[in-house]
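Subject: sequence -> structure tokens, single chain

Hey, anyone have a minute? Need the predicted structure for the following. Not urgent.
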Amino acid sequence: MGVAIFRREFEVDPSARGHHVVYRVNESNRCPGCGRAQWYVGRVTAECGFCGTAVALAEAKWTGAFTDSPTKKGDERRQHERIDAKGRTLQLLIDGSPQSFALDNISAGGVSGESDAVLEPRSTVYVRFEGGILVPAVVKWIEDGLVGLAFTQPVLLDTAGQEPTEQA
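Reply:
Had a minute. Here:
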């Protein structure tokens, strides 16, 4: 696999890296930075809750954009099917304050849309659906006036227009 840094390319052989720290599910994991054991576990990394040290998940598999064709479009890499939601408006609760959120699309994993609120990546918000259901989400990206939010737990979407429910 080639890596470009400052327009120089070199080969990386992960098997020749030697010892590296990973987070193992269902085991006691101590942070290599501070020695504590409180973790925020994501899809491919775990982050120490105290010092912020990030380590890779031992069980994570690189798929999608990392192993497939580099020309693959974003929609083809998505884990959950996107549903066009243009014209639909929800509310975001940011520090308890409701803000309007105009949807672009929605899926079981999150939403994207436009908001006038000042948001920062990695901040936590709540998405309030029409029936009052609150679903916690994390700001994943902000680009060209659009905001991408990932639900902390996938939701079941009723494509017939009913309210979402959280998956177990």
